[in-house]
Predict the structure.
Amino acid sequence: MEFLRPSTWDEALAAKAEHPDAVPIAGGTDVMVELNFDRRRPPALLDLTRVASLADWAADGDRLRIGAGVTYRRIIDELGGRLPGLAMAARTVGSPQIRNRGTVGGNLGSASPAGDAHPPLLATGAEVEIGSVRGVRTVAVADFFQGPKRSVLAPDELIAAFLVPAATGPQQFAKVGTRNAMVIAVCSFALALDPQRRTIGTGIGSAGPTPLRATEAEALAAELPWEGKTLPDTIVQRFGELVGAAARPIDDVRGSAAYRRHALAVLGGRTLRWAWEEHRCA
Amino acid sequence: MTSTQRQPTQSQPAQGQPTQSRVQDAAQRSVGTASPRIEAWDKVTGRAPYAVDHPVPGAAYAWVVQSTVARGVVVDVDTSRALAEDGVLGVLWHGNAQRLESVGDPELMVLQSARIAYRGQVVAVVVATSPEAARAGADLVRVREDGMTSDTVLRIDHPALYQPVQVNAGYPARSAIGDVDAGLAAAAVRVDATYRTPAEHHCAMEPHATTAFWERGCLVVFDGTQASTAVSETLAGLFELPPQSVRVINEHVGGGFGSKGGPKPNVVLAAMAARLVGRPVKLALTRQQLFAVAGYRTPTIQRVRLGAATNGRLLAIGHDAVSQTSQLSEFVEQSAVLSRHMYAAPNRLTTHRVVALDVPTPVWMRAPGECPGSFALESAIDELASAGNWDPVRLRIDNEPAVHPEEQIPFSSRHLVQCLQEGAERFGWTDASGRVVRDPRPAVRRDGEWLVGTGVAASTYPSLTWPSTALARATADQRFDVEVNAADIGTGARTVLRQIAADALDVPIAYVEITVGDSAIGPATVAGGSMGTASWGWAVTKACRLLRERIERDHGGRVPTGGVAVRADTTLEIRDRPEFSRHAYGAQFCQARVSTMTGEVRVDRLLGVFAAGRIVNPTTARSQFIGGMTMGLSGALLERSVLDSRTGDFVTGDLAAYHVAVSADVPRIEVAWLDEQDPHLNPMGVKGIGEIGIVGTAAAVANAVHHATGIRVRDLPIGLAQMIGKLH
């Protein structure tokens, strides 16, 4: 197995163009497990940890541009205030050791339907910045995932960064696992309220072939009493039902499809209530 | 290489300065003093060498190839491609492996025949100059297997179930007193329920691993084992060597929980491989390989029948346990044995049946018998309390036996009632006057979306003691070296043995060095059955007392220039002990909550109160109790090894799929113990504490879940699948 170690972004793109079957590796928390379990034996690994620019983040207008190599730990420590939903999701990833290594870029690259970062990125309308020797393009997260562990990345492309608006209102994330930490989600749900625009963003994890949005639930935003009023239980319930209905789960070792739908309905209603309380008290 | 490294302690005597002064008496007792583990610093800094950490020049590395069918034969093994791989030194399989002499355990007769008895059985071993080359070579070994229909599922009506002669630990399989059916017929309140516990895996941090080399006809082995004496004796038998030609060193062992209680295939394979290539060989099994090769706790199906009179006195106790074993060797979990002494009743019946399936061989796992058995019995007692409208603490106290109810011999000490009373008060189950303040009604306490409840269960574990030997030496500079072939598997064994030695010598503990973990020291028993401290400590006590006596009597209280040494063996003392029923007891209390919305089950609080003889070291003892209760909680809520009936494979074969409790799952755990004095145990007055903590925890959790929700879970682990749809 070849081990490629570019030290700049341009070198990385050149290496990927030359070795399109090379698997990019950042924190290694997904890739190394697959290698160790012998599920995958790529002809080459492309180590991105020397590419310093990938570990940068900066404000870009009203959005943040966050390098693909920023770890979960740094998302929590440095961006928790501006991206509360993503930071909440980051806190549920693995153990402290995993959070010190794992990156959101890697999460996107693996494109697992269970990736913890995906629901908050969906809920906030984030975009993925993709580079290659051919140029740069950005793709909405909602269009990025193509199926289980499949994305729109071409063989010569690498994820450079993701672009996400700083929170303009309350955000929530909730995850069901069969234990309280170090667990792959049975299902997860992220929610972002935008009181200025009067919109709700949603993201469903681990309950479909890709991370999903609950668009019908989002449409309930028009019915919410945005002027600081208490949220009627009927809306909370309806919202939860629509979240559950938007899921496309299967039965697997972690949980049944029926349980996932049920749990998502609960998580949907619950996160809406939590976020609404915050909005009302703001 | 086996001397224990110790951090500097205060008041160390200056080394190497002979003294003419008398041996100084201890100013205070060491036993009973809280102190951290001697080797803690070495462990947390990575300096403590485990089995394959020992630097051995020229070591080669072995990698196993496992069967992929649950039952069948190996038709052919093609090693040509593997042998052509760079770095591969040799491939062992049954066609070229050396013949072994049987020692009675077919599991250890590795690579001796073409027969495959379970999926994951080792069918070949590749030895190479690096672990990577060995693994690559293992991928290139072509094993042609002829698989047959396999039978891998334990059922209560399995036609091949039979009653064995004995169950684990030598108990009879069946025990009957009076007439259980008549007792049940006469009872006013009855319970007849069937409980199931799943297969579970130990998942010790250090995998089963061995470094082995041959030197002038002698075999030297570093093995991660709980019993280096037993491993050395077994290897001597298998390889037909004189016993003194095998040395097994286990200075540090990264956990075992029973899975390293006896020799496992890894140690035999490493020795064979080292002989094949004429170099030292290191063999460390991977986490995934352990699930088939290193043993597991059998699943159990247990029927418990209880009948009580209107006053709550038990008239009948029936406990019928079913478990599985492999086609290779018979291991029978003694799940019903605790029901022979926990409660008084005139009519009693306990039975065990087992079936040999095409599965890996089950083995001891922390509190074999008592752990799954207590889930069944202590859940059933709780069901009886509900049915009879009795308080579960009171019901247990009312059925306290005066003597062992089946053997009619006295208990050496038994303070179950005191544990229940003390625990009930600490937990808030009763008030200071002993009056029950717990509301017995199920499913009435709400905390937002949560239903909250409390439960109790009793714990017990036998207080065993086996013969051991120990060596104590005094040197002229007033230092004392004490050696015993104990295995410190992370329990604090060497720390408490040093305390025991200091008191038996009656010298300050700083003058005492302790060495453990080397079969060359002399025979000693396994770190298992919660008997290490009692068994090794007795030998240490005897050697140390004799040594001090000899210094006083023969040398006027002064250690001569040449030093003095004493070896002690406790075989006769243990044989001649009077007959008593010796057990530790305890009570565990749990508060649990269940979400009415998601069905998730959380434990808020666990309290364990134990009566386990004298506690040598409160620090390490607390860790043992808490560790046991944590493992019990983990078993109650999470642990389950799922075997695919089509393939005979444990599909939960790694730590991402086999869930053990993580810190975030573990609530406040409180531990207390009674100051129990028992003169009938051993010179130290200790009972074992390594296993009792796991006994009863799952029942306490299940009983709390029932109190919270009204839902009775008889099938571990307790998960939201059993809750959802039944909550209101």
Summary: Residues 326 and 357 of chain B are 5 Å apart (CA to CA). The interface with chain A takes residues 139, 288, 597-598, 600, 637-638, 642, 651, 654, 656-657, 659, 661-665, 719-721, 724 of chain B (CB under 8 Å).
